Fold this protein.
Amino acid sequence: MMKLSRPWAATGQIILFITGLSVALPLLLVLGTSFKPANEIYAGYPWPLNPTFENYREVFDKLPFGAYLFNSAATTALRVTGQLIIALLAAYAFARYTFRGRAFVFALVLGAMMIPHQLTFLPVYLLVNKLGWFDSWAALIVPNLAMPLAVFLLRQHLLSFPRELYDAASMDGASELRTLWSIVLPNIKPVMAALTIVLFVDCWNEYFWPLVVTETENAMTAQIGVRRFLDAERGDDLGPLMAAVTLISLPAVAVFVLFQRQIINTFVSVGIKG
């Protein structure tokens, strides 16, 4: 591998540092503002001089924010679980079997990755409304269970499996589900873990679709709850608003920071294999 000269390496490190700082600084400012009392919000200090949890208490007093967080956590967990199961079965079929039209069907899966949700939300919304799922967990979970990106990533890894493993399992009398559970799944645990994190962050941060299909606290997610709080306060009460933003940002940020190595390794290995 070619090594960069010292000036170029130093320049790259400086660029990375500036980029990282530009990403981290707004997050730190939001976190700091969430602990500021009202008289320090516009004082110009980047960090609170007298930290307080009053903003967090006010968020839960003014809104059913606990219900919003529970809706986000529960629907995200159910949705990610469903996405993983469907993606694993589809990827196994694409990698394991040879059938007429396989390449065309997989091309359709790849094509679905290119279609923005905003182009399909209207017919999906009409279907959800017709089924009576509006303002329910089903509306948040079911329309998003098929994840083309997950199918693609898992298929690329399963293609590297030696055919001899499948043949040996068949000779031992193992069913397809037994082969999938006992042979395939244990060998792709790192990939499944990384994919779980990517799907979690995607589901947790989703804003547009919950905004369309939820109306009350029965199904409203935390992201929509923050928007509701912003509309109610007209953006004037920055302390509680930043506290709410911190509460919904921390899970996704923490998960990504803790497991970023697995995520990067998964996408790099897919690029090498595919």
Q: What stands out?
A: The first helix runs from residue 6 to 34. The two ends are 21 Å apart (CA to CA). The mean pLDDT is 85.
